Automatic annotation (TrEMBL):
Residues covered by region (Disordered): 393-417
Key words of the record: Signal
Leucine-binding protein domain mapped to chain residues: 25-370
Protein species of origin: Marinobacter orientalis
Source superkingdom: Bacteria
Signal peptide residues on this chain, from the entry's feature table: 1-21
Protein name (database record): ABC transporter substrate-binding protein
Family note: Belongs to the leucine-binding protein family.
Ranges of Basic and acidic residues composition bias in the record: 397-410
Length: 417
């Protein structure tokens, strides 16, 4: 009888142990499946699923399979925060990432902090994300508006130093950050000499863009700075082309993605300049082997080239895996410490998670859209970008003193909490 009880106890122990060992590690992806940023959202999803599948084939994270749980933000900040709460409270996600709108990323990050979980911003360029609104549970993988503007301005100041600018800006935190930063570094702070208009966000109409573009045309400016993103940029640029402005002015889109370029098409996009933290051709131009592996795996699986959003999501999943394994646990506090100051090379040259603000510091690229025949020569008709300038991450990023000045202005403590 005693042997039988011991046998039953042993079986139950084995069953419990097996169940625990097999329990998946859940991570949450919070992205727009619908709305004006849906294309950038889809790229995040594709990059994330590729990373998860690769990691699981290689044995998971500390022996646990990774399960990706998703939610649709629709580009709405309140919905992003609600989704984050659900992903953690109901699904048990150990980490959440995503966001295309900076307002969504910021609200989602706050919800994650309240639940002691890390939130990785995947496509959020507002300075506030790791600046005035930054906290110890938020990490931003791509660059911010300051970094993009500083690199872009290096090029623009050499080519358009004496030209008049006109700004068309989405009226929310990301747009404000970008315009402010570009004006600062291009010496176009004088709004009488370098005019601009704000367009409604998130529900701008074609008539709003047409009116703004008519103002740009009347100004006589030589540089048209279109601080718009996603479908808003696509619609506005189509109108600018119809009006002939793309031939009269140098159009600059500070945060330019492959998805946006593909939506507009090579004919209209030719010659447009923008900033990017990563483009799929960079690993080939600079010989980054791991970056090439990602491009080829993504292209083969999805029959398209990856955009910045896909690369960011893919990198985040791998960076979380690396941090958990170095920490030896999924405990949030210990994973945060493993990330802070960590340097690595993955899809490009060296990057690192800066300790004092959790900004990912990395090389910034300035790109120009190639002629149509070069774009279409690619197997997937997507060789849009020629890298025409770059800036090292430490040169592009805010200094600690500059970051602290912004925190003081916002009434925030001078260390992340």
């Amino acid at each position: 009888m005693l042997c039988k009880k011991l046998f039953v106890s042993l079986i139950l122990t084995l069953l419990v142990t097996t169940t625990v060992a097999a329990e998946s590690l859940k991570i949450g992806l919070n992205y727009p499946q619908t709305g004006r940023y849906k294309d950038q959202g889809l790229q995040q999803r594709l990059g994330a699923f590729l990373a998860v599948d690769e990691i699981n084939r290689a044995g998971g994270i500390m022996g646990r399979d990774v399960k990706l749980v998703i939610r649709n933000t629709s580009g709405e900040p309140d919905k992003g925060a609600k989704n984050t709460a659900e992903l953690i409270d109901q699904e048990g996600a150990q980490m959440v990432f995503g966001g295309v709108s900076s307002a969504v990323a910021i609200s989602s990050g706050r919800a994650a902090r309240e639940r002691d979980r890390i939130y990785f911003g995947t496509l959020t360029y507002s300075n506030a994300t790791t600046g005035a609104a930054g906290h110890d549970h938020m990490f931003r993988e791509p660059y911010n508006a300051w970094m993009a503007a500083k690199a872009l301005s290096q090029y623009l100041n050499s080519q358009h130093a004496d030209d008049e600018y006109f700004y068309i800006t989405a009226d929310y935190t990301w747009g404000w950050s970008v315009e402010e930063s570009v004006r600062k570094f291009t010496n176009t702070d004088d709004t009488d000499a370098h005019q601009g208009v704000k367009t409604p966000f998130p529900r701008a109409l074609i008539t709003d863009f047409r009116k703004a573009l008519e103002e740009a045309e009347k100004s006589g400016a030589k540089v048209l700075m279109m601080v718009l993103f996603g479908d808003d940029m696509v619609r506005a640029l189509n109108v600018a082309y119809e009006m002939g402005l793309t031939k009269k002015m140098q159009v600059v889109i500070p945060n330019l993605t492959l998805g946006m370029a593909r939506q507009v098409g090579p004919t209209i996009m030719e010659g447009i300049i923008g900033g990017a933290p990563w483009v799929w051709s960079a690993p080939y131009q600079y010989d980054y082997p791991r970056g090439k592996e990602f491009v080829e795996a993504f292209s083969s699986r999805y029959e398209m080239r990856p955009s910045t959003a896909a690369a960011s999501a893919y990198s985040i999943v791998y960076q979380y895996k690396d941090a958990v394994e170095r920490a030896g646990t999924t405990n949030t506090g210990r994973v945060i410490r493993a990330l802070e100051g960590h340097r690595y090379s993955f899809l490009k040259d060296e990057q690192y998670w800066r300790e004092f603000d959790h900004q990912n510091v990395q090389t910034v690229y300035v790109v120009r859209v190639k002629p149509r025949n070069e774009i279409m020569a690619d197997e997937y008709s997507s060789d849009y970008f020629e890298i025409i300038d770059s800036m090292p991450g430490d040169e592009a990023a805010q200094t600690r003193e500059e970051w602290e000045a912004r925190r003081r202005e916002a009434g925030q403590p001078l260390s992340l909490q």
